[in-house]
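Could someone model flavin-adenine dinucleotide with this protein?
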Amino acid sequence: MSPSPQPVDVLIVGAGFAGLYMLHKARRQGLNALVIEAADGVGGTWYHNRYPGARVDIQSMEYSFSFDEALQQDWHWTERFADQPELLRYANHVADRFALRDGIRFNTRLNGADFDEAAQRWLARADSGERWSARFLVMACGPLSSPNQPDFPGLDNFAGRVLHTARWPHEAVDFSGQRVGVIGTGSSAVQAIPVIAAQAAQLTVFQRTATYAVPAHNGPLDAEFEAGIKAEYAAFREANQRMMGGFGSLQPPNRISALAVSAAEREAMFEDRWQVGGFGLLGTFSDLIVNPAANELACEFVRNKIRATVTDAATAERLCPSHPIGCKRLCVDTGYYASFNRPNVQLVDLQQSPIEGFTPQGLVAGGVDHHFDALVLATGFDAMTGTLLKLDLRGRGGRRLQDHWRAGPLNYLGLTIAGFPNLFNVAGPGSTSAFTNVIVSIEHHIDWIADCIAYLDANGLATIDATPEAEADYVAHVNTVAARTIYLNCNSWYLGANIPGKPRMFMPLFGYPAYVQRCAEVAAQGYAGFVLA
Ligand SMILES: Cc1cc2nc3c(=O)[nH]c(=O)nc-3n(C[C@H](O)[C@H](O)[C@H](O)COP(=O)(O)OP(=O)(O)OC[C@H]3O[C@@H](n4cnc5c(N)ncnc54)[C@H](O)[C@@H]3O)c2cc1C
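Reply:
Sure, complex below.
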C-alpha cells in the first residue's frame, strides 16, 4: 500500500523564479512549504531554453528580483541584456543565498491533484509515486513552459538531428560545417538565427509569419549606469511599477499621438528610440497600441529598417511583416535581419512554399528539396495554459480543469479559478504577465498570494474560492480591455492562435498598474468576488 500523503501547508509546482520566491516567502511566513520541480535544477525558463543566443529582452537591471535590497545591490550583471548562462547563474545564486535547495524536490513532476472537500486540502501526486496533502497549491509552473512541438507529418523520416529551442541539450551543440534548417521566426528563432548563421556552413530559415524585431544594442553593462541605478534601486523599481509593463521607466512613453506630428518629426522620434534599442520603440507615441493608423506608421518605420538592412530586395520584402507591430510579441534582436545578407543563409517563405513533407535528408517545401544535417524547431510554446492542461487537476465535485477551461481559461484576477479553492496560478492567463517584465509580475503575484494566506490564517478561515460570477465578469473585463487595443488584430499566442484546436480567447490583461490596483482593492474589500470559508 502506498504511504499516506505527506502533509504540507503549501505545495509549489516549479522552481523557476516564481517557485523560488514563493518558497522563500512562505518560509518567512512560517509555513511548511515544498517545491516540486520536474527538472534537475532551478531556473525554469533559463534552465530549459539553452539555445544559442538565448537572452533576456528586458534590461538585466530590471529583469531581476527586487524583494531583497542586499541581493539587488550585490548581484552584478555583466551585460545590458543578460544571456541565458548568466540568468541561470542568477537563479542558482538566489537558491543558495536564501538556502532554498532543501525545500525543493528535483526530478519530480506533478501529475495531478484532487481537491478533497471533506479535508479542504489538495491531494497531489507526482510521477515519482510521492503524494502530498496540501492546504494550498501554488502553480508556479510557468507561462511559457510547454514547448509547442508541431505535428509535422513525417518528421520522423528525417535522419538528421532534431532540436527544439526550448529543450536544448545541456552540452554545447556545434554546427560548424553543418547544414542547418530553422523552422519558425519568433523570439527564440530571432535570437538563435544570427548565432547559428555565423557557425553553420549553410542555414535555411523557414518563415510562416514575418517578425518585427528591434535592436538590443547589447553590450557590457555600463559601470556608471549600474552605480546610478543601485544608488536608488528602490526608487527605480517604484518608477517601473507605474509603467504599463512594469518596466521601462528610464524611457517612459511619450504622451503624444503619432498622428499629431509631421512625418519628419515622427521619423526622428522613432529613430531616437531605435537608436536606444529595446521595447521603448512602442512607447514613441501614446497611441501605437490602441490606434491601427498610428500603429501602421510604426510598422512602416520598421519595414523601412528591414529594407535598408537586407540587401536582396525580394528577401527584404518577405521579411517585412504585415500585421500590426506589438500585436505579436515584439522581438529584440542582435543582427537578425542582417543575417540574411550572409551568403550561407537563405529564407523560405512557408506561405508561398508550404512544407510538403520530410525526407531522410531534410524537407520538401514548395516543390524544393532542402537538405540538412540538423533541424531546429523554434516553434514556441503552448502558452499560458499548456502546462496546466497537461495535468489531471480536479476541483470541487471532481470537476476537471480541462472541462472548466473547455472554451478558454476562465479565471479570476489571473490568480485563481472558480471551483478550485486554495489553488493559485502564477503569471497565468488573466494576469498582465505576458505584457510585463515577468519578474515584476511574479513578485506581485507571490506577495498577493502570501498576503491572502496570512489573511485566511488571521481570520481562522480554511478556504478561498472565486465565485463563478466574479470569474465571468473578470474574463469579460480582460477581453474588453483587449478590444480597445490592436491585440485582437492578428493571430498570436496571446489568443491561443499558434496551437491548432486551442480555444481562441485573449488570455493576458493589458495594463500592469491598473491590474495591481484591482488586485489590491479586492484584498482590501475582504477578498471581494471570493467565498471565504
Ligand atoms: C526563451 C524565453 C525568453 C524569455 N524572455 C523573457 C524576457 O526577456 N523578459 C520577461 O519578462 N520574460 C521572459 N520570458 C518569460 C519567462 O518565462 C519568465 O520571465 C519567467 O522566467 C517565468 O518564471 P516562472 O518561474 O513563472 O516559470 P518557468 O521559469 O517557466 O518555471 C516553471 C518551472 O516549472 C516546472 N514545471 C512545469 N510543469 C511541472 C510539473 N508538472 N511538475 C513539476 N515541475 C513542473 C518547469 O520544469 C520549470 O522549471 C521568456 C521566456 C522564454 C521561454
